[in-house]
């Protein structure tokens, strides 16, 4: 476990409002990330795919650096420069040896502040993204998740695919990109996190030097929605070799006080661990699936719970029946103190192992500060987990696992 008494989290706010979180580690390898509280849900329908498009094109040149030089600044010294987009965040991050801290901070600030998005480079990247979309749509095991989010959240930002549509992507211009950034990016919705071998004050001064020019301005505020979710059963002939099934429901947002209890319940039900309830019951006991797992994703105003199973077509009805039976058992029968204790220890162990990888910790603490305005220590998180009671688990199971509120999508 991280020794936070020896290496605590440090916080600072730059003069323009950008928030910083830092943890010193004696490792030779450092990790640095810039988190922007803007994702695909913040796009208008005509802009769907823009946040992901920007993630690709932000490396295509600045006022001082060409695309080749950007890609060589970190990779050329053995590091990694990367980015990703979610429904609610855009993240640019780097991994590098400690002696390249200033180089990394300067580079990330340059591409965040000064990317020029040249039309010639954007046109080339459009082809890459169209191929990514086509590849994604050829993968029913991935595509079914997006279709389920569309079922739950409808024609809203949360219901649309992060990658966007080929038609939208082909229309995007350099001016469109710059307008989107101008309207939605601001210093007040940016967090920078790091885990590495650097003194906090020195790192904060570097961030002030290179990121303080970023404007703290009024931007379009994310509008929370009321989703008109109604359970549905959808069965589609996709001519797939394997049948894909998703069963799920809307769930809690990330500020809901039931979120931690449901996180624990989801981990019991269908975590990647081999001893999850679904895996033990449907795969190990009945041998009906190769993959079965559940997921819980909380957003700022709602959440989604999904169970995925891949199987042969002849097993569909049997598997759905067994999944329903499993969910009803959790909603109707209280777990014992011993069952809850074992589940808590498993989840705490998984979190501790995750934090043992400094890159994962850097990404986690940046997202935490962005979403919650604070970073919980592992011990604080453990205390929250330990406070969960069997009654709490029964309550959230009754609310989310109610069979009449579940939706199902089948690709066969």
Features:
412 residues, alpha+beta, Cytochrome Bc1 Complex, Chain A, domain 1, six-stranded mixed β-sheet, 15 helices, globular
Rounded Rg: 22 Å
CATH architecture of the largest domain: 2-Layer Sandwich
Beta strand count: 11
Q: Structural class of the helix and strand makeup?
A: alpha+beta
Topology (SSEs and partners):
Layout: E1 9-13, E2 19-24, E3 29-36, H1 50-57, H2 67-75, E4 80-85, E5 90-97, H3 101-114, H4 119-137, H5 140-153, H6 166-171, H7 174-184, E6 190-196, H8 200-211, E7 233-236, E8 243-251, H9 259-270, H10 277-285, E9 291-298, E10 303-311, H11 316-332, H12 337-355, H13 358-372, H14 378-386, H15 390-400, E11 407-411
Parallel strand pairs: 2-6, 7-11
Antiparallel strand pairs: 1-2, 3-5, 3-6, 4-5, 8-10, 8-11, 9-10
Helix pairs in contact: 3-8, 9-15, 10-11, 11-15, 12-14
